[in-house]
Amino acid sequence: MGRKWNNIKEKKASKDKNTSRIYAKFGREIYVVAKQGEPDPESNQALKFVLERAKTYNVPKSIIERAIEKAKGGSEENYDELRYEGFGPNGSMVIVDTLTNNVNRTASEVRAAFGKNGGNMGVSGSVAYMFDATAVIGIEGKTADDVLEILMEADVDARDILEEDGAVIVYAEPEQFNAVQEALKNEGIEEFTVAELTMLAQNDITLSEDARAQFEKLVDVLEDLEDVQQVYHNVDLGE
Question: Where would I find the TACO1/YebC-like N-terminal domain in this sequence (predicted)?
Answer without folding.
Answer: 3-74
